[in-house]
TrEMBL record:
Keywords in alphabetical order: Calcium, Hydrolase, Magnesium, Metal-binding, Phenylalanine catabolism, Tyrosine catabolism
NCBIfam families (UniProt xref): fum_ac_acetase
Entry EC no(s): 3.7.1.2
GO function terms (MF aspect): fumarylacetoacetase activity
Native source species: Bradyrhizobium algeriense
Leader peptide range in chain numbering: none
Cofactor dependency: Mg(2+); Ca(2+)
Pathway terms, separated by semicolons: Amino-acid degradation; L-phenylalanine degradation; acetoacetate and fumarate from L-phenylalanine: step 6/6
Protein name as it appears in the record: fumarylacetoacetase
Annotated ranges, domain Fumarylacetoacetase N-terminal: 24-125
Broadest EC class assigned to this enzyme: hydrolase
Keyword Membrane belongs to the record: no
Domain Fumarylacetoacetase-like C-terminal: residue ranges: 131-416
Length: 423
């Protein structure tokens, strides 16, 4: 049987070369349709969702019970482990191949199992057990450091020795399309003598990737590079919404808190680690050399194009304000997971790890408005004379990402959020 990543594979379902969902991808999500059935697990293929519960009911899978795909979240499937993940993806690929008649020529099953994307509602794809956000782009950390501490003290002494992170809130991770209400908090600009409480005035985004942990680790035990890699089920695009003025006042001495916990948006489709395998590469050289437990042998970064579009309230369509690549990340997702567990911290199925803001070396590759507008001193020029330093009520932010193959793309769709006024 051909490997699901084979570039020559084609589906009997027509898929445009620019689609994010060719047969080489097969990302997982949770959807509901007009049939009135409860949310369940599906796979994106072109402009359709393949209903895995319908296929399981029809006995098309040998190793997965129908109840696993009837669940309103991917956690039960992820818990089955990497061997089941790989075998299931291979079976789905086989069923969708243009030269395989099993589903292609079964009109009744095809009508039940293939649902037009336009007719579905996408839900949170998994239950988030815990959420940790990292700070792993050297370019982003340097830009922020220069802004607030100057060029000579841009990176803190520990930054080049370990992935820096903090524990966020799983309760406010939401799926694409969920509106985001402007947060309130304590504010104290440099000109004020005492703090006040009110709506955030410097609302920002952060372009990140999210890693979904699909297997648990044991409390008290460390992970090797290989173990950490095999625990990763897949990736989503992640928007770490950030209230910069709240953050500025609260972050000393323990780091971000209310400035980050009000909302984190993710894309609805989980692209599997296996689907991204052809796009792996080595990340930037790490100097000084990390301690032995963080050293890598495998190429754990990905050649993944990312872009951010901003639609101001006065605009009809988003305008791109950033184009960057996941390959620039100094600390890889595997290193983040290894470090997270290094103290003996137990990881759980459904844990979400944010990569940290993804910025590249060029000005148009910055992954936050804080950097793009250089802390509000260089407004972003948009269509129709609109300018932005930070996000205003009614603004919509759209992030997209994909890996470019030979005649196909392995993509994530998009993650979108619109800003609502503070209550």
């Amino acid at each position: 049987m051909p490997h699901p990543n084979d570039p020559s594979l084609r589906s009997f379902i027509p898929v445009d070369a620019t689609s994010h969902f060719p047969i080489q991808n097969l990302p997982y999500g949770v959807f509901s349709a007009k049939d009135g059935l409860a949310p369940r697990v599906g796979v994106a293929i072109g402009d359709y969702v393949l209903d895995l519960w319908q296929l399981a009911q029809d006995c098309r899978f040998d190793v997965v019970e129908p109840a696993v795909f009837a669940a309103p979240q991917l956690n039960p499937f992820m818990a089955l482990g990497p061997k089941v993940w790989s075998n299931t993806r291979a079976r789905i690929s086989e069923l969708l191949r243009q030269d395989h008649p099993e589903l292609r020529d079964n009109e009744s099953l095809r009508k039940r199992a293939l649902v037009p994307m336009a007719d579905v509602k996408l839900h949170m794809p998994f239950a988030v057990s815990g959420y940790t956000d990292f700070y792993s782009s050297r370019e982003h950390a340097t830009n922020v450091g220069v802004m607030f501490r100057g060029k000579d003290n841009a990176l803190q002494p520990n930054w080049l020795h370990m992935p820096i992170g903090y524990n966020g809130r799983a309760s406010t991770v939401v799926v694409s399309g969920t509106p985001v209400r402007r947060p309130r908090g304590q504010l104290k600009p440099p000109s004020a003598e005492v703090p006040s409480f009110g709506p955030c005035k410097r609302l920002d985004f952060e372009l990140e990737m999210g890693v979904i942990v699909g297997q648990p680790s044991v409390m008290g035990e460390m992970l090797t590079e290989k173990q950490a890699e095999e625990m990763i089920f897949g990736f989503v695009i992640l928007n770490d919404w950030s209230a910069r003025d709240i953050q500025q006042w609260e972050y000393v001495p323990l780091g971000p808190f209310q400035a980050k916990v009000f909302a984190t948006s993710i894309s609805p489709w989980l692209v599997t680690r296996e689907a991204l395998e052809p796009f792996r590469l080595h990340g930037p050289a790490q100097d000084p050399k990390p301690l032995p437990y963080l050293q890598q042998v495998q190429p754990n970064n990905y050649d993944m194009a990312l872009e951010v579009g901003l639609r101001a309230t006065q605009m009809n369509a988003p305008q791109n304000i950033s184009r960057t690549n996941f390959k620039y990340m100094y600390w890889s997702s595997v290193q983040q997971l290894v470090h997270h567990a290094s103290s003996g911290c137990a990881m759980n199925v459904g844990d979400l790890l944010g990569s940290g803001t993804i910025s590249g070396p060029e000005k148009d590759q910055r992954g936050s408005l804080l950097e793009i507008s250089w802390n509000g001193t260089e407004p972003v020029e948009l269509a129709a004379g609109v300018k932005r330093t930070f996000l205003e009520d009614g603004d919509s932010l759209v992030m997209r990402g994909w890996c470019q193959g030979d005649g196909y793309r392995v993509g994530f769709g998009e993650v979108e959020g619109t800003i609502l006024a503070a209550e």
